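Now for our specimen.

. . .
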Amino acid sequence: MTTVPALGPDHHRSPTPTAAAVRPILVLLLASGATFLGMLDATVVNVAFPDLRDSFPRIAISQLSWVITAYAVVFAALLAAAGRLADVLGRQRLFLMSVLGFALTSMAAGAAPGAGWLIAARAVQGATAAGMIPAALGLLLVNTPPAKRAAALGIWGAAGAMAAAVGPSLGGLLVEGLSWRSIFLINVPFGLVICYGVLRRLPADAPSGRQLPDPVGIVSLVLAIGSPVMGLSQGSDWGWTSPEVLGLFAAGLTFGVVVWLRSRSHPAPAIERDLWHSRVFTAANVTSALFGAAMYAWLLAGPLYLASIWHYSVLRSGLGVTPGAFLAALGAVLVGRRVPLKRQWTAVLFGTALFGATCTWMALALHASPSYTAVWLPTGLLGGLAIGCVLTGLTSIGSTAVPPLRFAAGSGVLMTSRQVGGALGVAGMAVILASDGLASPDGFLTVFVLCATVAVLAAGSSFALRHRS
């Protein structure tokens, strides 16, 4: 297994001196619960999109899509730094602070009086989720015996995969029965329960003593990701050659260079370059970004297609995409429990190829007339299975390509790659649908072709995951 040498004075320090006193099953439950909430909010808004348009009719689709994109961009930009912050402050402390912050920002989003407030609340909510998930994974990895680590990762991955897939159905139930505000407010009681469990059962772990991440680099990273995503989402409205759009793309490139340069000189960079010395870790991140773009665009396009083309209700649209959630969880558990680590690259290859084939089938077989049993149900099941296999395989490979003291930082970078890809995928989907409109199936079919193409690229990059020393 390829690893990166641990750096700094904490090289010989125990990852967590209280690990022996903690029950691994409890850590697994708390980590999986928090991860479920964080990943749920990446997709639960999808099915509420038509209801949001009714609440804010004067907002263009490209602008309203930032209710989803703002969460994804901030989440992606802060994940890597949050992984290091978990190592610096202590995983338990950051986990508790982040879960509490997630509950409070969910309350703010649910009470939003306007679209601007909602987008701002979603951005801050993404920041709290960025601290929550790497800390959860770090706690899980250091408190689980090595022999059981793959199985625990499989269950943890199943929670994330289930959340991503079940989000639309749960959102449909809440929106149909209450309103779109309920999809945010439901996080509050669950977040408080997790906080109670952490306070009562998880002792604080010792901080590593490493330096806090570079604040200039973090802000630059947010702008490096957010600027081109905004340029992509607004290009059809402002004009692709307008000074505003070209300026956003140029700003993204400029801030990206700033991040890269500071990562060479700052002792605690926003992106830790030495992690990328691992060939497997680099390949996992490339594959994660590509698959994230295809997956998140597909997850959003599905409920929109059912509501806009087949005229399903919000609840029926949500339930229509639910079956894939169960296959996603099944795929995640099977890969985690049954596939040896050295063979998990084959699970990633299988999943990305299957996802590409599924999207191709949808692009060729879907029409304006409903064909749920013949086309939608089987493609949804296969797509869910593919998501479960890929996410768990990539998490296992990417996380174990770094040493234990770098688990949180490594997992944060890996999730950053996935979320960056997802933000770009959603922005690209918004451009296509804004151009073709929601009333015609042509735009959706183009989105599915795009998803298939990117998934095939992810399958190609997954071959590099097999080179393990």
Remarks:
- The chain has two domains: 23-204+270-466, 214-269.
- The longest helix spans residues 146-177.
